[in-house]
Amino acid sequence: MAKRSDRRQRRAAAAPPRGGAAAPRPDAVPPGAMWRTSAFWLGGLVVGLAVAAIAVAAIVLLGGDDKTPATPAAATPAADGGIKSAEQLEQEFADRDRQQIEELTNEARAIAETLQPVMAGLDKALPRSGGPVEQVAADKVQGWLDTVRDAAAPYQESISGGTGFNIARNTIRAALDGLLNTLETYQLASGAGDDRAAVHQQAAAQRDNAIRTWSAAGVQIDAINIDAGFGHQHIEQLGGAEAGGVAPDTLPEGTDATLPE
Question: Is the model's pTM score more than 0.85?
Answer without folding.
Answer: no
